[in-house]
Predict the structure.
Amino acid sequence: MRASDFEIRNYEKLDKILSKLCEMVTKGQESDKDYGMVAAAVLDPSNQIVARLNRPGNDGKRIHAEHAAMEDYTDKYGPIPEGSIVITTLSPCNEHMDERDGPSCTSIINNSTIKKVYCGYMDPTQDDDTRQFNVMETVDKQLRNQCKQFADTFLGDVHENFADGKNPQDKGDSKRHGINTKASVSSLRKTAKQGGRKGQLAHWLANMKAGRAK
């Protein structure tokens, strides 16, 4: 694999697709379907594209948008070819989530031919240690802000330094309020009942881990 195979180019084209994905999220929320707040697409070297929203999965769980797009691309066109790229409104998850249907999106992409991901907003709550692909966030401020607004509905207000270590000089809000970011969803739900800022942070973390919105 050449280093150039990981490079992401043609930002104008990718931003147009990202803009369409944002429209999908908005329309999905206006529909009577149980769609989530993230949209993703697979674009192959022949410009064939499959775009999907987060959707209900099995047993009350959620299929994340990247998973849905990759699964439906394969059903429609066959195996995803090398050189394909994933475009998503929020960078891929990679942590355990009890209510997510299937493995993390990072794991699914790692096990595919895809080496490039272009996103509208980088999820500051997710660890990237297991990533085997290049991910780039759009530099279009309007698109980024729109994608961040979608994500903030279930990630919380990142301006409050929600992610531990986001600002090295400060402890993250979760650490300052004594929340274990690795705790289970059920444990976080119990903490959320305490109310206040600690309860609010626990509620956001539980929703993120559960994948209900994502």
Notes: The longest helix spans residues 11-30. Residues 91 and 123 are 6 Å apart (CA to CA).
